[in-house]
């Protein structure tokens, strides 16, 4: 009896090792290829531009009389809220692949793809002063199938800024 019980238990344990031809969840790694940009060009993409219309809003941050409204993956709208009844758009801070922002004292920290950037914004001059860029703090953008960027042959001095479908 013990031998039969042992055989049945072993049969159930080894069942997962059996070859199965059905590949329901198979995902091709070559379905997408990364779009990259040189680090030098990537770092120039963070810039202050003219105000623009909000299209795909995200989180809202408030510091003193300024509102920072995230435009998902594109940057932040900077809005003067000194008169809450009549907020005035000041500028758009273009930061491709930005997802988050934090403010401490007068320093603003943003997630810029793989980097963490610290900067100041001056309302008076409507200017941006980058204080520090900590490179490669965050993981690179994953492919739509969930593959890490490290699975692709990406030059060391390049940043993954997106993926395109391979035909």
Describe this structure in words.
The chain has one domain. The protein is built from two helices and eleven strands. The protein has 167 residues and is mainly beta. A five-stranded antiparallel sheet has the order 2-6-5-4-3, with no helix packed on it. Strand 3 and strand 4 (66-71) form a beta hairpin. It starts with a helix and ends with a strand. This is LVIVD repeat-containing protein.
Summary, kept brief:
By secondary structure, this protein is mainly β. 11% of the residues lie in helices and 44% in strands.
Record the SSE blueprint.
Layout: H1 2-14, E1 32-38, H2 39-43, E2 47-49, E3 57-63, E4 66-71, E5 75-80, E6 88-94, E7 98-104, E8 107-112, E9 115-122, E10 127-134, E11 158-165
Antiparallel strand pairs: 1-11, 2-6, 3-4, 4-5, 5-6, 7-8, 8-9, 9-10
Q: What key attributes describe this structure?
A:
mainly beta; 11% helix; 4-stranded antiparallel β-sheet; 167 residues; single chain
End-to-end CA span: 59 Å
How large is the count of helical segments? 2
Q: Largest sheet, if any? A: 5 strands, antiparallel
In total, how many domains does the architecture comprise? 1
Shape descriptor reads elongated
Secondary-structure-based class equals mainly beta
Percent strand: 35-45%
User: What portion of residues is helical?
Assistant: 10-25%
Quaternary status: single chain
Number of strands: 11
């Amino acid at each position: 009896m013990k031998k039969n019980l042992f055989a049945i238990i072993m049969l159930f344990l080894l069942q997962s090792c059996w070859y199965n031809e059905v590949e329901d969840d198979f995902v091709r790694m070559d379905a997408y290829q990364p779009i990259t940009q040189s680090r030098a060009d990537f770092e120039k993409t963070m810039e202050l531009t003219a105000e623009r219309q909000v299209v795909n809003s995200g989180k809202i941050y408030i510091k003193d009389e300024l509102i920072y409204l995230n435009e998902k993956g594109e940057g932040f709208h900077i809005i003067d809220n000194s008169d809450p009844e009549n907020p005035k758009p000041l500028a758009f801070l273009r930061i491709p692949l930005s997802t988050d922002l934090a403010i401490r004292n007068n320093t603003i920290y943003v997630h810029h793809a793989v980097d963490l950037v610290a900067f100041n914004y001056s309302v008076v001059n409507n200017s941006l002063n980058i204080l520090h860029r900590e490179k490669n703090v965050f993981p690179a953008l994953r492919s739509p199938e969930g593959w890490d960027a490290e699975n692709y042959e990406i030059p060391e001095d390049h940043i993954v800024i997106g993926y395109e479908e391979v035909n």
